[in-house]
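Q: I have 288 residues here and want to know how they pack in 3D. Can you give me a structure?
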Amino acid sequence: MINVALLPQGSVSDEAARYLFAGTEVDLNYHKLIADVFLSTANGRTDYSVIPIENTIEGSVSLHMDWIVHEVDLPIQAEWIYPSIQNLIGRLDELAGDNQAVDYSRVVKVLSHPVAMAQCLQYIREHLPHADLEHVSSTAEAVRIVRDHPQSGWAAIGTTIAAANNGLDVLDKGVTDHDNNYTRFLLVGEKPFTVRSSEKQKTSILVTLPEDFPGALHQLLSVFAWRRINLSRIESRPTKKKLGNYYFFIDIEMSLDSVLLPAAFTEIEALGCQIRILGSYPSFTYEG
């Protein structure tokens, strides 16, 4: 059986993991903190970790990226896209008005994960500008806290699965500010992912420039450009060693098995850059 570490039951990570492993016998190990998710796999207690790494609205999850670089050495084995559909969750009998619809004025506090909260800011400004906002470790944790505090006027932003698991009502569906709200997940671990296959392959690398000089990044990108290698993402993150020093995360739409990519890496290293290969893996799009 495959053992997988992920964020709490009822979170978007939970939904996304069930989508990726659909039809496969898998043991899902839930953790409250992302650090415990990573360490579960790094210490050999689970085969893989499910890591939300990027969102349509909020962009990259910097904390998770830093864990991959600085804290663990777990190769990426797969990536997939999953829709992040957030909902307002609470007790309807507590928060309903005379017409039995939710009375927003009765909501005094809204709890959720900061990324999920940020995906719903326009909705909150329109309907709940008076409510206190509290960030917690996951959307599932937010729903659990609301469950444990009846008659408090609290509501959570989370998934329908979390609402059902905790016996709460979905007060308002699909409260994210944009309909095309998707999250990109990574599966990290030592074992190659063989549950599903995909014609689309990607490779992720981390590049450190030898020094900051005019044209350094241009030289790096030119290595890929003249070979017509497509980069789907490039992002800088601090090395945490010196102010102004950065790594570059680069996602390449090509397998490491191709002829072009190893030659490109050799040329990059000849420029004095350091390359760390984070993984070469199948990429899955969402098929709803």
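Q: Anything worth noting?
A: The CA atoms of residues 152 and 238 lie 42 Å apart. The longest strand covers residues 274-284.
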